[in-house]
Amino acid sequence: MDSHSASSAGASPGLTHWGWQFGPVAGWAAPALLVAVGYYLAARVGFAFTLQPYPISTLWPPNALLLAALLLAPTRAWWWLLAAALPAHLLVELQSGVPVAMVLGWFVSNCSEALIGAGLVRAFVPGPLRLDSLRNAGVFLFGAAFIAPLVSSFLDAALVSLIGWGERGYWDLLRTRIFSNTLAGLTVAPLILTWASIEVSRLRTARLVRYGEAAALFAGLLTTCMVVFDLPQIDPHTAPALFYAPLPFLVWAALRFGPAGTASAIAVMVVATIFGTVNGLGPFAGSTPQETAREMQLFLSAVAVPMLLLAVVLDERARVELDAREQRLQLTHLSRVAMLGELSGGIAHELNQPLTAILSNAQAAQHLIADKSADPEILVEILRDIIAADQRAGEVIRRLRTLFKRGETQFEALDANELVHEVLGIVHGDLVTRSVEVAPELAAALPKIHGDRVELEQVMLNLVMNACDAMAGVAPERRRLSVRTRAVDVADGAVQISFADCGPGFTPEQYARLFEPFYTTKPRGLGLGLSISSAIIRSHRGRLWGSSSPGKGASFHMVLPSLSSKGR
Amino acid sequence: MSSARACVSVIDDDALVLRSLDRLLQSRGFDVRTYSSPRTFLEQREGDSPGCIVVDLSMPGLSGLEVQQALAGAADRRPVVFISGRCSVEASVQAMKAGAVDFLTKPFDETELVEAVRAAIEKDRASREGLAERATINLRLATLTPRERDVLGRVVTGKLNKQIAAELGTAEKTVKVHRARMMRKMQFDSLAALVRAWTVTQPPPPALPQA
């Protein structure tokens, strides 16, 4: 537990933080360089995805890359990052023989898309964006992947028309631009954003099976995509059905690999599809290249949006559940520690007994040896007693350490009688100082139960202490706690453990509220014991209930399924 | 009675502790008797013999405080030293109020225990000696005639023979004779010794009410 949280706090979560902790210039140099290199490579990819002879790519990643970089960076670093992209832009565009005015115009429109998208998102989600909640994902999809390409495409198409590059009309250009930029916003930006927020330590500590599963997923997805999108079309009538073939893999990614896995899977599918379409293969074959590209872009966008949202929602829910479980564990642990605190007097007694025996024995031995009157036989006995006392003290510490420990629930086969012995060992000192006599009636040959040792001991400890508190007003010689274990005939075996006191008992009205959190009949109780106990027993698929007859005390019983009935 | 050796009775339900205290006290030269529960002690206790009692405060069944009460009820005047594995203020106050000699918290050093036991035995010895002296003096007092008693009662309050004679309505000479006989029977040769012995036999002043 501890090592995990320490390492996650220490590891830098990918791109999000690195660089910006350092000085104002040196700190931005690394991300700026990264953006420049990334922009160059992304533009090369964009060119490769161009449907000839038109100078418009089916997927134009540089804008989305800029967008993602801005979303991850603090606002004050934005101008640096945009400036860093300029040399890369010039380098890649001037090679392709486009007029300088057009090259600069495109840089302006590219930057405007990134700025509009990042500005819109930042207005609603301050700080570096993480796609870890439905709200963040919604803001991103609407602001950065839809509005920004839409608005900037007007500017882009206008610039192209103004400069007179190419022969197509304004609206035609605009349409192509919007779809191309939207698809990039939906696939490239989430890919960068999700991978940037991944904790490196989690990748490193992941089990080999996980990597195997990821490999199987991506191999399956790639194969399917290649069969569906990269082979010559066999029969036009099967095409609509074939579109669904990669879907199981995307759902698999969303269920098991979170937003980063899903964004990666979408990227694989997008690349495979575009590759096929650019090479004239696969099901997308419209009458014109523009139509072909639009069909494909619409299809890919329609798949990407729900899959990303699904992954984010699942991820968010898993995180909430994890938090809730962590909180429950914490609460259980805290109430256990508080209970042990109440027992501290009795525990001190349990430790002081063997310590007294050790000290007195050792001092007696000193005198016997000094007097030279020592019978070696007595010295041997003394040593034997010292060892026994020491072992007893060690046993007290061991029991305590088990209960103080805070960890994940661990189910194992347990002997109910042994648990009772352990618990009575822990409270022995307390029982003695409160003059409570214990009468255990433990059935022999009980079936093993399936449970978490610490949690079940906590429940028993709680019931024993409640019983002792209930008997505070009873005359000391009549304070009696009976503890019973027995096998009960529920289907294929269960074990019942009962604790009965001779206190005043409880009324039906009190019983109705007994298991509520914060309800207590004790002057200084927190009222959490029984509510936590019943939650623990429920998680063991058991039952915890109480019974009382007026003037004859109260009993609490827990029934736990035996190991043989597990999983039914 | 006073010639019997003092004996320390130790009561603790924990066998390991009981044996270790037995060994320690024996190694320091005490006579020790051990009891593993308050009940066995109350059943087998050696009557009101010289010595003291070392008892664990918290034991199942009867507690140390209840042992103390039972002893008081049985007119067993032996001083009690409490030992306890848990330091409870209420219990120690209660024990000390009930006349415990000492209250030791486990684990204690041998010097603490030995000093407490010595003090308890000393207290026991003193109270026993006081008792013995009182008994002797009472025996002697019984041999006095009523007239000699009258004289004694006035002598110890510091009256002169002349005053005594006047009060009793006899001659001063007669008073002198009674006084000499009384002193001989009481076996004292000084007035001071007589006055001291007289005070020992008198009942103590009533105890102050407890707060």
Describe the structure.
Chain A is an alpha+beta fold and 568 residues long. Chain A folds into four domains: 13-199, Arp2/3 complex 21 kDa subunit ARPC3; 206-333, no CATH class; 343-406, Orthogonal Bundle (Helix Hairpins), CATH 1.10.287; 411-565, Histidine kinase-like ATPase, C-terminal domain (Heat Shock Protein 90). Chain A contains 18 helices and seven strands. Chain A has helices at 2-10, 26-48, 61-72, 78-94, 100-124, 134-163, 170-196, 200-205, 208-229, 239-242, 247-278, 289-342, 344-370, 376-404, 416-433, 453-470, 508-514, 529-539; strands at 411-414, 437-442, 449-452, 480-488, 494-500, 543-548, 554-561. In chain A, a hairpin with a 5-residue loop joins β4 and β5 (494-500). Chain A is elongated, with a radius of gyration of 35 Å. The model of chain A is unreliable at 1-23 (pLDDT under 50). Chain B has two domains: 7-128, Response regulator (Rossmann fold), CATH 3.40.50; 143-201, Arc Repressor Mutant, subunit A, CATH 1.10.10. The model of chain B has no long low-confidence stretch (mean pLDDT 83). In chain B, strands 2-1-3-4-5 form a five-stranded parallel sheet, sandwiched between helices. Chain B has helices at 15-27, 38-44, 64-73, 89-97, 110-142, 146-155, 161-168, 172-186, 191-201, and strands at residues 7-11, 31-35, 51-56, 80-84, 102-105. The A-B interface holds A 345-346, 348-350, 352-361, 363-365, 367-368, 371, 378, 382, 385, 388-389, 392, 429, 431-433, 435, 437, 476-477 and B 13-14, 16-17, 19-21, 23-24, 26-28, 58-63, 83, 85-86, 88, 105-110, 113.
